[in-house]
Specification:
The chain is α/β, with parallel strands linked by helices. It is built from 17 helices and 15 strands. The protein has 2 domains: 240 residues, Glycogen Phosphorylase B (Rossmann fold, 3-Layer(aba) Sandwich); 175 residues, Rossmann fold. The strands form 3 sheets. A 7-stranded parallel beta sheet has the order 3-2-1-6-7-8-9, with helices on both faces.
Length: 435
């Protein structure tokens, strides 16, 4: 197959979607398929950055500029006709979009224009993110007024539904969420298949289908994640020395983007109670983003700043050292669609404390971790239980590895290929004109 992957975030950005797209491209190509990635150039003149990105001719970048909303998200609004002609000439068998924004929607437009089946993967819970980033309202309005109508073949009912969304709501968050829910529902209802990465996302997407006109089947298919190479004893010792981690310290913490939407302050608020019960406890944050400075101030103000470590961003192929340092992995986010790092932590044989019960297929309460309530006290209680029971940590860690093995990159890609084949076989082509 010739497959087009359309994403609004790609290298040099570092995030979960980038990893998913890169992994998918690698495994699809290893199985004999031809894959093209369509993504932002992070420049109005993509050719100037061609050498910097070390792109192949199978990575096609659109002119873009900094969005102003997120540090790692660009706006791509320049889609000259030659781009659509270029996509047409590739004769793609299937289009797969990862983001329902500008680049993702140009993929939808190309699919409609060239009668190509398209698959929509719901990677980011933009609906919930809007509560933390209310300044996305101008972008949401632009989405429904410019990008969606240009990309999706709209009927009269579609247009009426979009017009309703211009009516202001009480509060930017409610307005944002109404726009996002309706725009995504309209786009996904045009897709040949929609992929949810968790039961939580599947339930959310199905709950939005209130109108008979906007119905679509949702397939639960988590992204596959492979284990990260474990460090040598010397590498682990050096890493711990670098961050002042003692051999008897008990480390709990988080890996990922340090964003306001990740509910990370709860881990700092739990620290005093944890240290009272486990004096050698330490909290570690592995990752970076604009919210890091706020977390650092919170750690300082807690009075336990010397027990909190911020490593900054670490390349993925070196993350094994961080996971090997953890005794317990904690994931407090309530706004993720899968949690790639939960799979990495499970592969690393870690017990896991999780708040979002419907988020991950690799965390089971009482089998390889604990489900906590969304309070510092509950986080502390569950971390303390594990800190005080090395045998339970080991038992949970071994079961984490068993669960993680069910969702490897290669096994999930094979499921995706079957989905591609199914949508290609069942795609409705336009009727031939009557002679």
């Amino acid at each position: 197959m010739r497959i087009g992957l359309f994403t609004d975030t790609y290298r040099p950005s570092v995030n979960g979607i980038v990893y998913v797209v890169e992994s998918l491209k690698h495994h699809l190509e290893s199985l004999g398929h031809e894959v093209y990635i369509f993504c932002p150039a992070r420049s109005i003149l993509p050719s100037r950055n061609a050498d910097l990105f070390e792109d192949s001719d199978h990575i096609i970048r659109f002119p873009s500029f900094k969005s102003g909303f997120f540090d790692d998200f660009d706006m791509s609004v320049f889609f000259p006709p030659k781009v659509l002609a270029q996509i047409r000439d590739l004769e793609l068998d299937v289009i797969h979009i990862f983001t329902p924004s500008q680049v993702g929607l140009i993929g939808v437009r190309a699919a409609f224009k060239n009668h190509i089946p398209f698959v929509a993967q719901h990677c980011t819970d933009i609906y919930e993110f809007s509560a933390n980033y209310p300044n996305v309202l101008p972008g949401a309005l632009a989405l429904i007024s410019i990008v969606v109508p240009m990309s999706v073949k709209l009927g009269g009912k579609d247009i009426k539904e979009l017009i309703k969304l211009y009516r202001p709501r009480r509060g930017a968050t409610a307005w944002n969420q109404d726009i996002i829910e309706k725009a995504i529902t309209i786009v996904y209802s045009k897709a040949d298949a929609v992929i949810a990465l968790s039961r939580k996302s599947k339930d959310q997407l199905e709950s939005w289908q209130k109108d008979e006109h906007y119905r679509y089947p949702v397939t639960l298919m988590p992204n596959g994640v492979d284990a990260i190479k474990a460090p040598t004893a010397a590498e682990l010792y050096e890493f711990k020395q670098q961050y002042g981690i003692g051999s008897k310290d008990k480390v709990y913490g988080f890996v990922g983007r340090l964003g306001a939407e990740k509910n990370l302050p709860i881990l700092i608020k739990a620290l005093p109670q944890i240290i009272e019960a486990c004096p050698r406890a330490r909290l570690m944050f592995v990752g970076d983003f604009e919210y890091r400075t706020t977390l650092e101030q919170m750690a300082h103000d807690s009075g336990y700043g010397d027990r909190v470590t911020f490593t900054g961003s670490i390349p993925r192929d070196h993350l094994g050292k961080a996971y090997a340092t953890f005794d317990i992995f904690t994931f407090p986010s309530l706004k993720d669609t899968q949690g790639w790092v939960l799979h990495e932590a499970a592969h690393a044989r870690l017990p896991i404390v999780l708040i979002d019960r419907e988020l991950s297929e690799v965390v089971r309460d009482g089998e390889n971790g604990y489900f906590a309530e969304n309070t510092p006290e509950s986080i502390a209680e569950n971390v303390i239980k594990l800190c005080k029971s090395p045998k339970q940590c080991q038992k949970f860690g071994e079961h984490s590895k068993v669960l993680a093995r069910h969702y490897t990159e290669r096994s999930q890609v094979k499921k995706l290929i079957r989905l591609y084949e199914d949508v290609i076989d069942n795609h409705d082509l336009p009727e031939a004109p009557v002679e």
